[in-house]
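Lab notebook, bench 4. Still working through the backlog of constructs that have no structural model yet. Next entry is a single chain of 239 residues. Request: give me the structure tokens for it.
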Amino acid sequence: MPASSITDLGGRACRDPGPTYRLPLQQLTDSALPIGAFAHSFGFETYMERGLVRDEASFGAWLAAFLGQQLTYSDALAIRFLYEGVPVQELDEQLSAQLLPRQVREASVKMGLRLLEIGSEVFPSPELEAYRDAVTTGRAAGHQPLAFAVVARSLEVPLEEALAAYLFAAATSLTQNAVRAIPLGQNAGQRVLRNAHDGVAAAVERVRSLTPDDFGAVSPGLEISQMRHEKQRARMFMS
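Model written out:
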């Protein structure tokens, strides 16, 4: 029997569903995962208020910058370092210091705490329990990318698959938020996501060659917009 086949209870051959981590990874990155991503724009609402993000093309440009800059040099690089054995509490402290906009820092922690809670129930592991204990006792903040990385590594998800899944999940949640906030049509949102495929692949490739000196590098324009959002007169999102 081919290696790609398994046998069901009736003795019939059927296709192997693939690595055991595949379905857990889909659940972990599903847009329906209740970690609160729907409540955050990570600064694109500030660009909306200024009229700079107003349609499919302008949002797509913002999303490409956010993925290729801020997420690549902070979240994605933190995930890689954790996979390589850097202690999670050390990375947690560095992320807290690097995320200068208060709302973005708080968003990372809020979603991270929910992910730690959900992960402990559905994907428990000694590593995740240790990180959650550090958060509970005040020795760590509990950032989303680190909670994700701890779970993904315990599930034996390969690094590149974990990075691609995390980045595309971020793109998906932000695009869903843009669909209702700008608003964009549903088809426009799908075109934006299709265009994000290349950006995610490029970010995964770039992360492989980055060094600790690159950790936390970010576009000043993105950070400034995230800081301005805190004092924006009217807003739909928490960040």
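Notes after review: DSSP finds ten helices and two strands in the chain. The beta strands are 5-7, 13-15. Flag for follow-up if needed.
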